Amino acid sequence: MNKFVEVKASTIDLAVANALEQLGVARDRVEVEVLAKGGLFSKAHVKVTVIETALTKVQDFVNGILDKMGLSSRATVTDDNGTLNIEITGEDSGTAIGYRGEALDAIQYLVLTYLNQEKSEFKKVVVDSENYREKRRETLTALALRLAEKAHRTARKIELEPMNPFERRVIHSALADSEIASTVSEGEESNRHVVIVPKGVELKGGRRNNNRRDRKDNRDRDHGRKDGAKKADKPRPQKAERNYDDIPDGKVYSLLSDDDDFVKPAVVKTGPPKFKSFGGKKR
């Protein structure tokens, strides 16, 4: 049943404005019926009725969720050829995203549940805020391409952290036509994750977590040889040069080995040098 209110005011426009404020909807969501135009000694009287459609019902449903979350944000719903796009805007739109989009995913799941109960014909639902979905897609695509090169270079599988279905699809799509790596999904439910597998190379072992174990096994084999022969030492990789210019707070950042995709702070000692005494012990 459609909601409506009857409002009286000095003018028709003022009466409609008061009715929209009471209903909490925009002008394009209502039908206005003028019951009395008003005059010098009488007020204008209007009946304003909310027009309910599948889109408006979803919009009201999402706005109800945002209200219960205590967020000062509103949802706008549009239909794109069967795909329901829900855009959240407002002061707390960033909070509506959550950590790595978890809040958006939760709202999206609730909307899907609601539509199933309503037996809606919408085929897909996308809840977004501050263009987070597209930004995340670009970040994951760049990550997938970089890790594919690393997997091929090191001849090892690379296991990514657990991701939601949207993020896993982005990784799969990014490497779908790759000539150096392929992708598979492993794990169940919340532990479902993507594994990047190099193409055209002989794998050196399992995943990247096996690097340390492989090196230990090699040392054990060398130590146990009966003939005492030692395995030829491989050339050690050159360490990146440390940059001591503009050192903040007595620290300098240096790049670690090629297998590490991060930088680690190295403490730089300051102050006068310490000298060790070689004199006799004091009695």
Task: Describe the 3D structure.
It contains six helices and eleven strands. The protein has helices at residues 12-23, 54-68, 102-118, 132-154, 165-174, 211-223, and strands at 4-9, 30-36, 44-50, 73-80, 83-90, 124-129, 158-159, 181-186, 193-198, 251-255, 263-267. A three-stranded antiparallel β-sheet has the order 1-3-2, with helices on one face. A three-stranded mixed β-sheet has the order 4-5-6, covered by helices on one side. Strands 7-9-8 form a three-stranded antiparallel β-sheet, covered by helices on one side. Helix 2 (54-68) packs across helix 3 (102-118). The chain starts with a strand and ends in a 16-residue tail after the last strand.
Q: Which labels suit this protein?
A:
283 residues; alpha+beta; GMP Synthetase, Chain A, domain 3; Ribosomal Protein S8, Chain: A, domain 1; three-stranded antiparallel β-sheet
SSE layout:
Blueprint: E1 4-9, H1 12-23, E2 30-36, E3 44-50, H2 54-68, E4 73-80, E5 83-90, H3 102-118, E6 124-129, H4 132-154, E7 158-159, H5 165-174, E8 181-186, E9 193-198, H6 211-223, E10 251-255, E11 263-267
Parallel strand pairs: 5-6
Antiparallel strand pairs: 1-3, 2-3, 4-5, 7-9, 8-9, 10-11
Helix pairs in contact: 2-3, 4-5
Number of strands: 11
Taken from the alpha-carbon principal axes, the silhouette is rod-shaped
Task: Report the span from N to C terminus.
Answer: 101 Å
- The helix tally amounts to 6
Can you say what the CATH homologous superfamily of the domain at 54-130 is? K homology (KH) domain
Main β-sheet description? 3 strands, antiparallel
Query: Biggest sheet: strands side by side, in what order?
Result: 1-3-2
Radius of gyration: 32 Å
Helix content: 25-40%
Q: What is the CATH topology assignment of the domain at 54-130?
A: GMP Synthetase, Chain A, domain 3
Write down the CATH class of the domain at 54-130: Alpha Beta
Structural class by SSE content: alpha+beta
CATH architecture label of the domain at 54-130: 2-Layer Sandwich
Order of helices and strands: EHEEHEEHEHEHEEHEE
Query: How much of the polypeptide forms β-strand, as a percent range?
Result: 15-25%
Poorly predicted spans: 206-217, 225-232, 239-271, 273-279
User: What is the overall pLDDT average?
Assistant: 77
